[in-house]
Structure formats: structure tokens, C-alpha cells
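Lab notes, practical 5.
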Amino acid sequence: AQEKKIFMVQGPYPIIRRLLRARGWVERKAPSTGRQLEQHCGDQNRQRLQTAPSSGGARQREEEEQCDEDPHGIHDLMSYLARDQLPNFIWTNFLETVDRQLLRDDSVLNHYARVDAFTTKEGLCLSLQNLPWIEQADPNAFFPRCYRLGTRDDREAFIEDFRLTAARSLLKLALEEAGDRPVRTEQVPNSDNEEGERHISHPKHSTAQPGSPLYHELVEEALEVCKQHLGVLQHEDIDRNTPSPCRTCINWDNFLHQYYRVAHEGAGLVLTRQQRKQCQNLLQSLAEKLPQLDMEGKLNVWILKPGAESQGRGIICMTRLEEMLQLAWSCTAPSVQVGRWVVQKYVERLLTIFGTKFDIRQWFVVTDWKPLTVWFYQDCYLRFCSRPFSLHQLERARHLCNVSVQKWYKTSPDQDPRVPPDKIWSNKQFQEYLAQVGQADAWHKVLVPGMKAAILNALRSARDRVRFCKGNFELYGADFVVGENLQPWLLEINSCPTMSPSSTVTRQLCANVQRDTLCLVLDRKDNPTCSIGAFELIYKE
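Output from the prediction step:
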């Protein structure tokens, strides 16, 4: 075996193995799989070993590819000779699976330690809460508001946020009811005004009782809460001891009960012309202080996520405060440690394609943390849901774009036939679509700059907690949704993005990003001018 040419691969990465062998590298088989695979390949001319049902077809295809690459057993022989050599390069799906005794001082590994500071939902939530203390950046400009329900301070902050969002949402619903549909005006007795004030109401809901003082007072309560909140926002830099608007004298249980009736049960609203103007002015003033006012919508939908899970496990969309708090502290999800939930504002005002929600999986590589060095991959892909988008139906098939979630759902009959059958698009296809809808410049002028900025801010917020060794690197997959205004919103960052293709598009893109990653971290060391494919250096301190 040649010096500095020994590698080890753990996990489903046949392309990495093939590319390294093509470079003349020799594989040292991982201890857990080496003997089994060696026997498998040695017996290939007699009989194909059937993969156990629990292993799945992907592993069988991988093993067959490995054998087919080595028809004369040359690589197996070289691997046998290298069995006592420590690998110079290790590519593994999990850092924890690497035996530290196998590492040389100069071994290159495709992971860093303690990256859970930004690659778990809980870690990213905490890190971005601290971002304003580290950088002159506001996480609310790119990351939907997020809270860790297992900590008291976060839980109380979430309850306050939910209430304030309900108050803002009520004002939006009132304006929508008064302004977007035919309305009538009527005289409503008012103890402060003998003449009465003209009220705007909508006749569609018999349950609403348009003249009811309850609904008039509901709007007044929402206006008062939002006025107080605006006051806090305008003075928060001066006096951080300003009392919370949620500690006012309104009955929040009653307010939320009535808000639920309006937002989710079809009850109507009534408001005076004066209130209408107040709503408009107040929301306009709040928009200048709250970057998420537009995207948060008016139904107060939040998404609960287990703090350290992946692939969409345990995630659920909800709209009622008491139910969210109960779920987070119940035993209904036995795989989730009690209290380790995060709750995040759902982006209600989404860009959809053919009426369907999608998200973007965007790759990037960190090759150093001091100085922080980040490479952005210029190709990515979109993942579609199986059913049309609806905020009134919160099932996973409509709202979670993860391939591991959507593979369990058949495309619904009411899905637009233009949604791709495999539910995947390349960024090139997305760019063509944007051009067709008159947004040809949005990809390069809005979406890509927004994704780069969000990724860099996330990394900066967590870098002091990451443990790293010089020479190592890591490939990450960031997930974004896109707002109606084409702004990308970061949802999460994955430390081990899948390289198992689920479509024609991902088969090509996953192969390309693995090829280009090896060029970036291996070939470029000896030849700084070599091609690194679609990677672009976007940051080096």
C-alpha cells in the first residue's frame, strides 16, 4: 500500500469508494463490515448473497456495485494488504462510529465534533438566539421564531409570542373581513356615543352575531395589546424593563378562545370604521419593527419538532397553545426525551408551485473553523409535498417536504398534474419556472444571496462551540422554504445529508456533490487551481 493512499468508508457511499479507488487509493475495510463484504465479494462467482430483509435494497445495491468494480479481486487483495495500515482519509456517516485507534495524527475526517450546536433543531434554536450578541445580525430576518419548550424562559417567551401573534392575526382577519369582501354598515349602540358608531360587518356567518359587543371588544383588546407591544418595540433599546404587553388586564384564555372561533371555526368579526383605520396604521407600524409580520400569516400555525430528531420524525403542525404545551410535556412521543421539543413559527405565507409546498435542500462545505472557511454548492434541489398546500388541513403530506416523509404518501387526486411524479426538481428547473412567472432574476438576486447569508450567520452563531481538527471538513445540507416575496427562510441544517438518490435529479446531483467535495478537500491540496466543480468560496475570515 502506498503511503498516504489508504482510505476507509463507513456507510452507504459507493460513489466515494469508486472515486477514491479511481485515484489509486487503497481501501481499508471498516471493521464492522469488512469481513462480511470480503466474503461476499469472494463468493460472487458462485452465488449472490441475499441481503437480509432488515438491511434493505440500498445496501444490496451498494455491495453489488463494490463487487462489480473489482471483478478480479485486485481491490480486495490490496485491502487485505492494507488491513494493518491506518487510513489517511475516512468518510463516514456518523462521527461516533469511528474508532479513535484508527486515526493517524494527519488523518482527514469528514466530520467535526460538537456540531450539534447548529445541526440539531434545539442547538440551532439556541445558537441563533445568541446571534445578536455575536454579530450585527437579526435571526428574525432569516430564521422563523423558535423556542425550546424544555426551558422555562423559552417556554414563557413562546407563550407570550403566541398571544401577541394571535392579537396581530385578529387585526389581519378583521381587515380581511371588512375589506376583501362585500360588507354592510349598521348602527351599533354605544354607551359612550348616543348616536352610535357605524360598524363594518360581514353577513356570511350566522354564528358571528355582527352587532355583538363580544366581537367589538375582541378587536379593542387586540388593538390595545398591539399598541402596547409597539410601544415596547419602540423603546426596547432605551428601557429593557418595560412591562410585557401580555401582562395586561385582559383574560387571555377567553381572548384565545374567541380568536380560535374567528380564525378556525368561521365566526365573523365586527369593527368600526375608526377601528379599521387603527388596524391598518398599527399593522403598518409593527411591520417596520417585526421582520416576520408578513410571513407569519393570520392563523397562528406553529410547528413542533423533537429537538434532536431528523428526517421529519415526530414533527407536527398545531394551532392551539394549550395543545402544544400539553404535547410537549406528555408521553405521546416515547422516542423524544420529555421537554426536548422546539416550537417554531410556521411560514404561512409561502411561495407554492402549482399549489404545492416545496422546500430547498442546499449543500455547503466547511473546510476550516479558524479561519472560518465556507464553500457554497451552486446546484441544489427542491422537494415537493404529495398533496396541495392548505393551512386548514395540517397533515404531514401537505406540510413536511422531507423525502423520508413523502415516500409514504401517494400523490393525491387533487394534486396538480404538473407537480413532478418523483416530487423532485433541480434548481435549474426552478429557475425556468421563476422565469415563466416573471421572476427570472429572483434566483440570483434574492434566493441565493439570502441562503448564503443565513448559512453564514448560523455558522458564526455556533463556531465557538464546535470542536475541530485542522485538515478535516464537513458537508452539510441546509433546508429552506421560500416566502411569497421570494425570501428564503432557513429551517434546519443537517450534518449528514442523504446521498441516497430518490429521483433522476438527485441521482445526478448527489453524485456530483460527492465528486466535487473530494476535488475540494483532496485534489486542491496538491493543485490549488484544480477544478472544484460547482463549489464557490463564499467566506474566509
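Observations recorded by the TA: The chain has three domains: 1-29+69-109, 116-143+349-540, 145-177+214-346. Residues 253 and 305 are 25 Å apart (CA to CA).
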